[in-house]
From TrEMBL:
Any Pfam family matching the protein: PUA
SAM-dependent MTase RsmB/NOP-type domain sequence ranges: 184-568
Active-site residues, record numbering mapped to chain: C493
Organism lineage: Eukaryota, Viridiplantae, Streptophyta, Embryophyta, Tracheophyta
Protein name: SAM-dependent MTase RsmB/NOP-type domain-containing protein
């Protein structure tokens, strides 16, 4: 009797263990709108798009660090990182990764399997710091108790996969009876199809199967998590992906930046003394990269229409001791100053001839890579931002009660979230045509190449076309602002050919004086060739010829480069 009961229980226990093993894993499936999925399958081929879609749901397994060569050298930073690992563990041995002791100075660093120099020509100021994953974790529970869980939002989970902790605003739900110091499994609730045809977030038990991103220790009780507005909710101890974290590490000497973004600044090839425009510059990574390549000599105009983002650019420039950057609050669609129309038309003929002539030696480049998106709901007035000082400009200036209250709040609360003391906004009329040697347009885009991405169902074919229309308007501004014979680099961080190859096709067809130039460094693969037509024949999209496709760079997240998806 006892023996029979034991035999019958064994298969049940085994089945339960197998179910748990399948459940407590990280195996996400990226959801797309059916029409968008068909569009991308037509562009890439169904098998390749499936690989891209799978790669997008996982983070890259390394961090790319750009060295500020005006303050240090690549070798010096490499040694400093190694010393930090040896002395302090650098976030637990780079999030738990151990770097073995090696002797022999430079040779030891060169051969290290975690921190090493970028192997691509022309990127000698770049270091790679290797992470690891995905790891199979064991989610342990107490005897006679189910595993305690904290369920987080998709955005929170994407940050955790990149190395962040779980912060209170990202927590959606929590098991009952969770106390401070408890070990919890962290899972993510992702949007699911709703009955009305849209999407809804449901933290249902079954929907989280295969969506467990790690384990951690709660920093407070369940009641505390839902009572306080901010702070760390869970300190992660085990992660599906162990990636390096560089908070407060070598500030001013290094900048964490995706490889395609580094390439975009290099391809622009800025020279000391030139005047450069970065049209959508926040948070300032490419802007500072350009300034360093120019040896901080010349002038870089950096634009963004968000006041706080402009302050971020100024803060980063100050942190890196860069003086050639001027940041303005300005809608890039209004970046061309309005002049006498007849005068500008009169200059158009000579402009075209000059570009064709100079293109033989320095061909204008139209490229693609990383994107910084801009919030369309923010103020788009044409204004500039400058740092305020404490000097009195007018002793008789009237100060309203509202200004007094604002100043009192600032004194009481301290600096804002950007750690800046504020800024003064002034009117600006934009910039004159033909007034820049080179223009970088890192265009606002659908951002469908950023990793990790756990949901993509919000984009439709219509919304993708709207992104492309907006980018064309911005590119039109860039063409007016660059001088004859100058260079335009166009970049995005999306896999959408409509925002990449189709824009290049638009530029070459509309502006006959433009031509694609060769790129250095050339790290990515070729662009997409051909065209796309909807089955209803209501929409046709033209891409590139075979020759043109070799003059752009497309970064495939499923390739061995293991970057975000972008286009240069």
């Amino acid at each position: 009797m006892d023996s029979s009961a034991s035999a019958s229980a064994s298969p049940t226990a085994a089945a339960a263990a197998a179910a748990d093993a399948d459940r407590y894993t990280y195996s996400p499936r990226l959801r797309w709108q059916p029409e968008v999925e068909e569009y991308f399958a037509a562009a890439y081929g169904r098998d390749r798009f499936a690989r891209i879609s799978e790669a997008l749901a996982h983070p890259s397994c390394y961090s790319c660090i750009r060295v500020n060569t005006l303050k240090s050298s690549t070798d010096a930073v490499m040694h400093k990182l190694m010393n930090l690992v040896d002395q302090n563990g650098l976030c637990g041995g780079i999030n738990g990764l151990e770097i073995g002791q090696q002797n022999g100075g430079e040779q030891a660093h060169e051969g290290n399997s975690v921190v090493h120099k970028c192997p691509y020509s022309g990127l000698d100021n770049v270091l790679f710091v290797q992470g690891s994953g995905p790891h199979a974790l064991h989610y342990d529970s107490q005897p006679d108790q189910s595993i305690k869980e904290v369920i987080v939002s998709r955005k929170c989970a994407e940050s955790v996969l990149r190395g962040a902790q779980v912060y209170i605003p990202g927590v959606l739900a929590c098991s009952s009876h969770v106390e401070k110091g408890d070990k919890v499994a962290v899972s993510v609730a992702i949007e699911q199809p709703a009955e009305d045809g849209g999407w809804t977030v449901d933290a249902h038990h079954e929907e989280r199967k295969g969506l467990y991103i790690g384990q951690g220790i709660t920093a407070m009780s369940r009641s505390g998590i839902f009572r306080v507005p901010h702070g760390v909710a869970v300190e992660m101890t085990e992660r599906v992906y162990k990636l390096p974290s560089f908070n407060d590490v070598l500030e001013g000497e290094i900048f964490l930046q995706n490889l395609p973004s580094v390439v975009a600044a290099r391809v622009l090839d800025p020279q000391p003394g030139e005047r450069i425009l970065d049209m959508c510059a926040a948070p300032g990574g490419k802007t500072t990269a350009i300034a360093i390549l120019m040896k901080d000599q010349g002038e870089i105009i950096a634009l963004d229409r968000s006041h706080n983002k402009v302050m971020d650019i100024l803060k980063l420039a100050a942190e890196m001791d860069l003086n050639c950057i001027k940041a303005y609050k300005l809608d890039a669609l209004k970046s061309v100053r309005k002049t006498n129309e007849a005068k500008y038309i009169g200059e158009a003929g000579s402009r075209t001839d000059a570009i064709v002539t100079l293109a033989e030696d320095s061909e204008p480049c139209i490229n693609k890579v990383d994107a910084g998106t801009t919030n369309a709901s923010e103020d788009s007035s044409t204004t500039s931002v400058v740092q305020t000082d404490n000097k009195k400009t007018d002793d008789k200036r009237y100060v309203s009660k509202a200004d007094l209250r604002k100043n009192l709040r600032r004194m009481r609360n301290g600096p804002g979230r950007n750690n800046c003391s504020g800024g003064r906004v002034e009117n600006s009329k934009g910039f004159l045509p033909n007034s820049f040697d080179r223009v970088l347009l890192d265009a606002p885009c659908s951002a469908l190449g950023l990793r990790p991405r756990l949901f993509a169902g919000e984009e439709t074919l219509e919304s993708l076309r709207n992104h492309a229309t907006y980018q064309r308007r911005m590119f039109d501004q860039a063409v007016k602002l660059v001088r004859p014979g100058g260079v335009i680099v166009y970049s995005t961080c999306t896999i959408n050919p409509g925002e990449n190859e189709a824009l290049v096709r638009y530029a070459l067809d509309k502006y006959k004086f433009l031509s694609l130039g060769s790129q250095h460094p050339k790290v990515g693969g070729p662009g997409i060739v051909g065209s796309f037509e909807l089955s209803t024949k209501k929409y046709t999209e033209e891409w590139l010829t075979k020759h043109e496709s070799q003059l752009v760079q497309r970064f495939d997240p499923s390739s061995t480069l293991d970057t975000i998806a972008s286009h240069v």
